[in-house]
Amino acid sequence: xxxxxxxxxxxxxxPREVLTNEALAELxxxxxxxxVARTGIYQRRIAGRRESTYTMALRAAxxxxxxxxxxxxxxxLIIVGTATPDYLFPATACLVQDALGATRAGxxxxxxxxxxxxxxxxxxxxxxMAGANERVLVIGAETLSRIVDWKDRNTCVLFGDGAGAFxxxxxxxPGGVLSAMLGADGSxxxxxxxxxxxxxxxxxxxxVRRGLHYVRMDGRAVFRFASRVMSEAASEAIxxxxxxxxxxxLFIPHQANLRIIRSAARRLNIPMERVFVNVxxxxxxxxxxxPIAFCEAIEEERLKPGDHVVLVSFGAGLTWAAAVVKWQxxxxxxxxxxxxxxxxxxxxxxxxLRSRFRHLRRRFDAWWVRITQGDVA
Length: 377
Ligand code: UT7
Fold this sequence. Notes:
Helix content: 25-40%
Bound molecules: oxa(dethia)-CoA
CATH topology of the largest domain: Peroxisomal Thiolase, Chain A, domain 1
Number of helices: 12
Shape: globular
């Protein structure tokens, strides 16, 4: 029997702090008019001091699990798509797994620049369709404000922070993720990169002095690449789902630049009324952009059962990806009853206690081994 991967839960998190173009113009030589005319961005969100990719991913994940009414212990896999993980390792997905108490789930991060979320969605849906997993949590989360050079007007005006999450579940009912295509052209890597901090140029006082830990981008070249690849990727995914562009009810593109979005819609012959845009509010949140936009499309009741949605993205690598989803769930979704929310709240409290206990036990074990066996060396 055929298996399908349906989106049964969704959630997003955006930090409270809003950074407007006007406020940015006090930091670098730019203006509200230039940013709006060239990008369509009016403001972006900036993570607070106590926030990170993990904390935002967790908030989005909890919301998605609540909508899906799925116990974290029933998750098989957690994938976090991000270019700004909390650490090089452990994976941010493992931090989320621990905090959720998703004790049966495998967890890993996936890095494909801004395309990470769609890459993760493709992996998750194929794991489900192949029969390997039943329920997978897919997250896109970024804290780009920590990797942009706030003195570089070519990049700092573009990016923002946030997170979005989907819960995918196996089903026999046709629908869900109908197709997904992935692409890459590594020869374009230098167009959008962080030169230092990896194994090629490890962090040193010299790399820090030269600002090599910040995003470097050839904006014009990325713009040209994006304008072309968005429509090509979307067309390929639409064809793979055996549909045509006029059967697409909603187009949710990567939210990097309104001009790129308009150009892709024009090439695909999709009118702007069927295109979801929120880049004006959040800027480019990289891997978080698509799931955040998807959540807002649901909140605005832009989807109804049977609708076909195209998701398409591009990013560092260079990478690109697109997916076609057949939406099945009537909107609005009623909030879960109070007692279920309370039970979930208790469960997350228990997960945190469990995690602390396991930390302590590891320290105790290490101490006990030292006391009883002495230093092996
Ligand atoms: O998720 C992937 C991430 N990356 C992207 O999506 C980036 C794609 N590229 C773009 O969105 C656009 O190329 C930008 C928004 C980055 C730039 O827009 P543009 O229309 O390609 O401008 P430009 O780079 O051709 O620059 C035009 C002028 C330049 O001045 P000159 O050389 O003509 O005198 C820039 O120095 O605008 C200047 N400029 C700015 N002026 C005011 C560049 N950034 C700014 C700024 N404020 N923030």
